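Q&A log
Question type: sequence-to-structure
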Amino acid sequence: MRTLASLAKGVPDDGVASADSQDQRLPALIQALVQSPPAGVVALLRGSNVVLSLATFAAGLYALKGQRVLLVDAGNSTDPYIVSRLALAARRDPQPVLSRIHIIRTFTVHQLAALAFRRLEPFIQKRAPGLVILSGATSLFADANVPLKEANLLLRKIAVEIKRQAEQGCKILVTAADAPVESGRRNLHLPWLDVASRSMRVDPSTSSGQGASRTSGQGLIFRQEKPFVGRAEILPADQFAAVLR
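Response status: OK
Response body:
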C-alpha cells in the first residue's frame, strides 16, 4: 500500500483556473459522497472510461476536506496529477492532500478477491478512512484469460462482500468502466448494480441540453439509475477539462 504522494514525482504548474467550488459542479451522487457520504451505502458510477478518472477526482475532493481515503485501483488508472490540479485550484499544497489518499493496486481478479475477503476490512478497522473507493471494479474481469463463468461468479461474490462491509458503517464508491464490446462481457456491471443503493451512468455527450449551449466540445452526461431512473445532468467540457485532462 502506498499514498498518492509517493506516486507523484512533481506537481505541474500549468495554470489551473480557480475552482474554489469544484465539488459544487459535480452531480448529486459524487457531491453527497464528498460532503457527507452516507454510511452503509454502496454508490456506483458506471459507463465510459472517464468514470476511472472521476474516482480519483472524488478521492481528491474528499482529501481536500482533510479526510483519509482508501483508493483501491483495480483498473490501473489512478492519476495523482488529478489530485494535484485540484489542490492547486483550491490554492492548497498538493503534498498533504495526496498523503491522505492511500492506494492499493490489484492486477488480477484473484488479487482483488484476496483484498476484498481478507485485507480490506482489517485495513478499514485500523485506518478508519472516511471514504473507500473501488476504481475499475469490472476491468480485470473483462480479460479473456478469465473464463466468463468464473468471472461472473467471483465478481458477484466480491460485490456481496463489499456490500456487507458497507453495512458495517463504511462509505463506499465503486466505479465500473464498460468492458470493450469485443470482449462480449457487457453485463459485468450487473453485480454492482444489484448491491448499489445509488447508481449513475456516465457517458460523453455533445448533445444540446442543460449547460451544453455554454460550451463547445464534449461534455459528460450523468443519468441516475438508482434509487429511481430519470434525472440527468450534463457537465459542460469547460467545467472539468482543467482537471480531468
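Response note: The CA atoms of residues 106 and 112 lie 6 Å apart.
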